[in-house]
Each structure stands twice: as C-alpha cells, then as structure tokens.
Amino acid sequence: MIVRIMGEGQVRLADSHFTELNRLDDELLAEMESGDEDGFRRTLGALLDAVRRLGTPLPDDALEPSELILPSPDASLDEVRDILSDEGLIPG
C-alpha cells in the first residue's frame, strides 16, 4: 500500500504493518474525541514515525496513487478532525 504523509512524500508499506498502525489510529481517535491535545500530538507523532520506520520511501519523482493520506506532523487537532472518517485515519 502507498501511504502519503502530507508535506513529506510517499512510502510503500506492507499490509502486515496495519495491525500496529490501527492500534495507534484507535488511540488517536479516542484522544481527539476527548479533546486531549497532548495525547493527540504524541500519538500522531508515533503514528507518523511508525509509517516512516516500517515503510520504504518512494523517490520524490514517483507518481504513485496514494491509497492512504495522513496529515502532516504539525496538523492541528481540528484539521485532523476534518479529514477523519468514522474509522479514524486508517480504515479497517
């Protein structure tokens, strides 16, 4: 799966990593619902770090369609809330 982090680029990520990413996504959703700004910031950072660590970066000139788009690390709680679905940032 191709994942884009807004403002950074794309990475190729194996489906086997989505269990870990979904756990972080669930935490992020709970923190957003409770308005926990500090927890939100910490978990968003952990989610993006996991994608970077587990994924393989694509070259900057690659034109692959992104199957998943994640917010930039400096996105606000309100900005992320606007792009969330009922399942969080990561469906499944």
Provide an overview of this structure.
With 92 residues, the chain is of the alpha+beta class. 46% of the residues lie in helices and 14% in strands. Strands 3-2-1-4 form a four-stranded mixed sheet, with helices on one face. The longest helix is centred in the middle third of the chain and has 18 residues, at 37-54.
The tally of strands reads 4
Q: Major beta sheet, specifics?
A: 4 strands, mixed
> What percentage of the residues does DSSP assign to strands (E)?
5-15%
How many DSSP helices? 3
Q: What is the strand arrangement across the widest sheet?
A: 3-2-1-4
Task: Present the secondary structure layout.
Elements: E1 2-5, E2 9-12, H1 18-34, H2 37-54, E3 56-57, E4 68-70, H3 77-83
Parallel strand pairs: 1-4
Antiparallel strand pairs: 1-2, 2-3
Helix pairs in contact: 1-2
Outline:
With 92 residues, the protein is α+β, with helices and mostly antiparallel strands.
Features:
92 residues; 4 strands; four-stranded mixed β-sheet; 14% strand; single chain; alpha+beta; globular
